[in-house]
Amino acid sequence: MKGMFTRRRFLGLIPALGAAKGFAAVSEKVPTRAFGRHSEQVSVVGFGGHTLALSKDIPEATRIAHEAVDRGITFFDNAWDYHGGRAEEWMGKALEGIRDKVFLMSKVCTHQKPLPEGGKEGAMKMLEESLRRLKTDRLDLWMLHEMKTEEEVKKFYGPGGAAEAFDLARKQGKVRYLGFTGHDEPGVHLKMIEGGYPFDASLQPVSALGTLHSRRFESEVIPALAKAKIAVIGMKGFGGSKRAHEKGLMTAEKVVRYALSYPEVCTHLIGVDQFEYVGEAVLAATRAPMTIDERKAFVQWCDLRGGAAYAMHCQPGHRDGGCCGSSMA
């Protein structure tokens, strides 16, 4: 996981906002958008549990979470195996007392396991562990993490697959919404949609850097998700690397404004590991989204500077954290 943007200092990635617009000056609340076909609203920026678990300690993580909620950032992402479960444990403690104020998401990681552990049986075990760690009796959104191959799609839909766990978990009231994620195989996302499961959301790259196949995610997958009325959640705005920032290509303001230029994107995930950066994230979120023309011009500007070459995280053959990993940036 070395070199990930989310392990870097978020404040340093927002020079375009200016020191005069620092944390103390932020008074706006983060806007919201409809969660796909549902009337429920979610904050247009979400915080990731992988990075929250990189903060100094649990008290710091708690301060970050409470300040984020006070400022209007209510979407919190996690996954079953981030930091070997520590990310969910820290988030569970950080959200004590405010759990009902947030939209809580986590992911199930059954991809490379054979059945039955790699299907319904294993998924339900992971769900119970996630609920225990997060100190809650339900998730607002439970997602199948990082769909990468057509074989994984077949396993999900097949007998004893995780689709059966999805149905059971919703029936038991342990999850409200269901979805899937992935960041380097747009064709697999399309297969998941074509399979017909009534997903509520999908998490995918939305990045001007054009890392790996992210442009196809935007040009092909976003329209397919919109047609199916599945909410789009963005990630990998920095390509999972600090290098684009170091080369002057990317700032947090550009990441957020670019992602939200797609009306289908209801929220974009970023990572914050220090309290003072919450205000900077809020400020970036309150800026107006790029227009279509601005988006096109920014893509061309990034391409001329070889933007995709500066990203590290979404490279061919990479699978987050073995099975799962960070969804931020």
The averaged pLDDT comes out at 86
- CATH class group: Alpha Beta
Q: Structural class of the helices, strands and pairings? A: alpha/beta
Strand order of the largest sheet: 3-4-5-6-7-8-9-10
Distance between the termini: 13 Å
Helix and strand run: EEEHHEHEHEHHEHEHEHHEHH
Number of helices: 12
Unreliable segments (pLDDT under 50, ≥5 consecutive)? Answer: 1-26, 314-329
Name given to the CATH homologous superfamily: NADP-dependent oxidoreductase domain
Number of domains: 1
How does CATH name the architecture? Alpha-Beta Barrel
Largest sheet: 8 strands, parallel, barrel
Helix content: 25-40%
Principal-axis shape equals globular
Strand share of the residues? 5-15%
Q: The CATH topology, please?
A: TIM Barrel
Can you tag this structure with a few keywords?
TIM Barrel; 329 residues; alpha/beta; 36% helix; globular; two-stranded antiparallel sheet; 12 helices
